[in-house]
Write a structure and sequence with these properties.
The protein is α+β, with helices and mostly antiparallel strands. The chain has one domain: Jelly Rolls (Sandwich). Helix content is about 25%, strand content about 20%. The protein contains eight helices and 14 strands. It has a seven-stranded antiparallel β-sheet with strand order 2-10-7-12-5-4-3. A five-stranded mixed β-sheet has the order 1-9-8-11-6, with no helix packed on it. Strands 13-14 form a two-stranded antiparallel ribbon. Helix 3 packs across helix 4. The longest helix has 27 residues. The protein is globular. The two termini are about 15 Å apart. This is 2-oxoglutarate-dependent dioxygenase 19.
Length: about 350
């Protein structure tokens, strides 16, 4: 069945600033119509197989042992412990991110460029220029490798972010080494083919304020991530859901663990052996959730295709595409399921 976008409302973007400001309104008892993502769950489900109604939920238990790499052919995500990133550093990243979101609104416009690939970008939802229904989310997006960028406030952000990004890259390298072994390819092949020495790393901080109507709004719509692996931490407020066998499943993370999410470009490079994970963020009416997503991709100029060694015995399942072009296609449109990945998937 072809993908169809959810039913969308109308709004004026002129009045849109940030969800945090809206959520803190003293008289907010319901959400504006342009945040009503699930206006008619039954109708949405009928037209969109990627979206299930919120009641279709089960809870998964996280593993209690270190995970070096996800199992081949999985569409799951794994918590990783014993990863080498100090717990106090993870807490510091979340705390200093909260400081950024708590800056006075008049200090934030300098971080709101129109170009979706600017190295420092603050905004709301995903792409308000294209969306008719917004996500209940504010974000800070920063390109941190191969060149390190950072907002100049709050003052502690630079030092904390630099250390966390460096340690995150070390975790990713270890995971990709294990994945290379599982694919039967040399670690150097992945490194050279994907330009990992100059890999693009993007820090994204997400703020999901309390919502008076959590069954109607969505923190971020169902989607898969671009890139190879996303490392995710949060402030112990639940909200991440994964789609598994047609159902949405809550993810509960162990303390001091990092959730690892497979991205589109690992699916492409593995020729489909690893599947990118369809996930979404839900909101609640009690607590604000903060999550930190660290995207780790190839170098921006890499043309990503299935690994050459795999194609000795397999037909290619994806057409080559430059990573930068893929990134631009995703970031400049509505965020919706695996719509960009489908463009490069070869249909049998």
């Amino acid at each position: 069945m072809a993908e169809t976008a959810p039913l969308l409302g109308q709004h004026s973007t002129a009045s849109i600033t940030c969800v945090k400001k809206l959520a803190e309104s003293t008289d907010l008892n319901s959400i504006p119509s342009y945040y009503a993502y699930y206006t008619n769950p039954a109708e949405t489900m009928a037209s969109d197989p990627m979206i299930q109604s919120p009641p279709s939920i089960s809870r998964c238990s996280p593993p209690t042992t270190p995970i070096i790499g996800p199992k081949p052919s999985t569409t799951w995500t794994k918590p990783v412990i014993n990863h080498g990133i100090p717990e106090e550093l993870m807490r510091a990243v979340i705390d200093v991110t909260n400081e950024f979101f708590n800056l006075p609104e008049e200090e934030k416009p300098e971080f709101q460029p129109e170009n979706v690939l600017e190295p420092i970008r603050y905004g709301t939802s995903f792409n308000t220029a294209k969306e008719k229904v917004f996500s209940w989310r504010d974000f800070l997006k920063v390109f941190v490798h191969p060149e390190f960028h950072c907002p100049d406030k709050p003052q502690p952000l630079r030092e904390v972010l630099m250390e966390y990004c460096e340690r995150s890259r070390q975790v990713v390298r270890k995971l990709l080494k294990g994945i290379s072994q599982s694919l039967g390819i040399e670690e150097t092949e992945m490194e050279k083919s994907l330009g990992l020495n100059s890999s693009l790393q993007i820090f994204i901080a997400n703020l999901y304020p309390r919502c008076p109507d959590p069954d109607t709004a969505v923190g971020i719509a169902p989607h898969s991530d671009q890139g190879l692996l996303t490392l995710l931490i949060q402030n112990q407020v639940a909200g991440l859901q994964l789609q598994h066998k047609g159902n949405w499943v809550n993810v509960t993370a162990l303390p001091n663990s990092i959730m690892v999410v497979i991205g589109d470009h690992l699916e492409i490079f593995s020729n489909g052996k690893y599947k990118s994970v369809l996930h979404r963020a839900m909101v609640n009416n009690e607590k604000t959730r903060i999550s930190i997503a660290m995207f780790n991709g190839p170098s921006v100029d890499t043309v990503v295709s299935p690994a050459a060694r795999l194609l000795r015995t397999q037909a290619p399942a994806y057409v080559p595409m430059k990573y930068k072009d893929y990134l631009m296609a995703q970031q400049s449109n509505q965020l919706y399921a695996k719509s960009i990945l489908k463009r490069v998937r070869i249909q049998n």
